[in-house]
Amino acid sequence: MSNKLFISSVMAISTMVFGANYLVSKPVNAVELLDGQKAFESSPRLTRAAATFSNRNNPGAKYQFTIEVPEDAGEALKSVKITQKENSDTVVFKADKTKASLGNSLSGDNIPLTAVEKESKPGDIIVLFDTPVEPGNTVTISIKPKQNPSVDGVYLFGVTAFPTGENSPGLYLGSGQIHITK
């Protein structure tokens, strides 16, 4: 079988098995759900995750997560949940030290927060904006851990964005990586 025929066969089978969306990347689109919940029309994007200090046990570190809300999001960003993925050490956050600002760093205008809730599991935190972040804006959230983990490695934090609306489903944006070194 020639290479061209083989590749065409694989693509045809992939399209039949996985659907056309498997081969073509499309933006996430959603409509108002049957129960009245709202969802993003176009997905916000996690564009950056970083630590101000990456050495083990550092009590001065802050973790920053930057999220871009595209113009065509359809809904404003109401809240963000950050969840540490399982690792050899658990980060404990200081909820009262959490901040948010417009832009790609904390040098932008501060965004007032309605609440910062620590979940029942250490390493999880929910940030609620006093005024939702409108489409076309970028927000950076800074979270203060009690200290960096005592074990070096790559720590993953899942980021989920929630649009305005009551009990709206969150949209998982992916995992931000924080590298802890000696």
Can you tag this structure with a few keywords?
4-stranded antiparallel sheet, DUF2808 domain-containing protein, 5-stranded antiparallel sheet, mainly beta, signal, 42% strand, Immunoglobulin-like, 1 helix, 9% helix, plasmid, 2 domains, disordered N terminus
Topology:
Elements: H1 3-18, E1 45-51, E2 63-68, E3 77-84, E4 93-102, E5 113-118, E6 124-133, E7 138-145, E8 153-163, E9 171-180
Antiparallel strand pairs: 1-2, 2-7, 3-6, 3-8, 4-7, 5-6, 8-9
Report on this model:
The chain is mainly beta. The chain folds into two domains: 30 residues, no CATH class; 139 residues, Immunoglobulin-like (Sandwich). 9% of the residues lie in helices and 42% in strands. The chain contains one helix and nine strands, in the order H-E-E-E-E-E-E-E-E-E. Strands 5-6-3-8-9 form a five-stranded antiparallel sheet, with no helix packed on it. Strands 1-2-7-4 form a four-stranded antiparallel sheet, with no helix packed on it. The chain is globular and about 50 Å long. The protein starts with a helix and ends with a strand. The N terminus is likely disordered. InterPro entries: DUF2808 (IPR021256). This is DUF2808 domain-containing protein. It comes from Stanieria cyanosphaera (strain ATCC 29371 / PCC 7437). Keywords: Plasmid, Signal.
